[in-house]
Amino acid sequence: MKRKISFLSLCAALVISPVLLAAQNNQPTGQSGNAAEQNNPDTWSPQVGATIVKQIRDKITGLTDYGVFDSLRFGIKGKKIVLMGYASRPILKSEAEKVVKGIEGVESVDNEIQVLPPSPNDDQIRIGVYRRIYSQAALRKYTGSPVGFGEFPSVARAAGGITQDPPMGYHAIHIVVNNGHVILSGVVDSEQDADIAAIQANSTPGVFSVENDLLYPGGGKAQK
């Protein structure tokens, strides 16, 4: 089943829909951006909106605390940005709101990001799903980070779990774990790769369910 994208998704890469952006501005075809803004001061022109979308993407993906165990997305309501998704640490929620509020043209931010509760069980699932997905030969291309955590974990990981010391670097497949339920998000090259990732997550001990929100060329799918 093809997945309908109702919001602009923020993962390792962003799926940006110009149709959604144009629709939220209600700009008639052929009308200039400046004229549209004058006629409807509560929205941005498509040109300004596209610039703001790019800035949001760059600001959030550039946050050092945004990692493989988080998944953020956003929506646009007039000149207000609605932040959504999941943060494995509270600091990411506040940091995302701060950088988006600082973008010129954004009038307000509705921060609906859900902070995931601390859980040693979920941390074990994060480790298991991460290892199973990124150790697959077909999926290794989706990260430049070494897979595996070694026999001697860092002090932070030993004290607070992998949530406090997540793998660093680029990860195209994000892994959200909430009370044993897993959500996979991001962008992959094919439906086959999305299926492989979901199968590996499903086979991880302790996982109750898997929602596959991975996107790929030609569509995406929802699987629970």
Please describe the structure with a list of short key phrases separated by commas or semicolons.
224 residues, disordered N terminus, six-stranded mixed β-sheet, alpha/beta
Shape annotation = globular
What structural category do the secondary elements indicate? alpha/beta
Distance between the termini: 12 Å
Number of separate domains: 2
Give me the count of strands: 10
| Number of helical regions | 7
What does this structure look like?
- This protein has 224 residues and is α/β, with parallel strands linked by helices.
- The protein folds into two domains: 8-115, no CATH class; 120-220, no CATH class.
- Helices cover 34% and strands 22% of the residues.
- The chain has helices spanning 18-25, 33-39, 46-61, 90-101, 120-134, 155-160, 191-202; strands spanning 8-10, 14-15, 71-77, 80-87, 108-111, 114-115, 173-178, 181-187, 209-216, 219-220.
- The strands form two sheets. Strands 1, 2, 3, 4, 5 and 6 form a six-stranded mixed sheet that branches.
- Helix 3 packs antiparallel against helix 4 (90-101) and helix 5 (120-134) crosses helix 7.
- It is globular.
- The model is unreliable at 1-33 (pLDDT under 50).
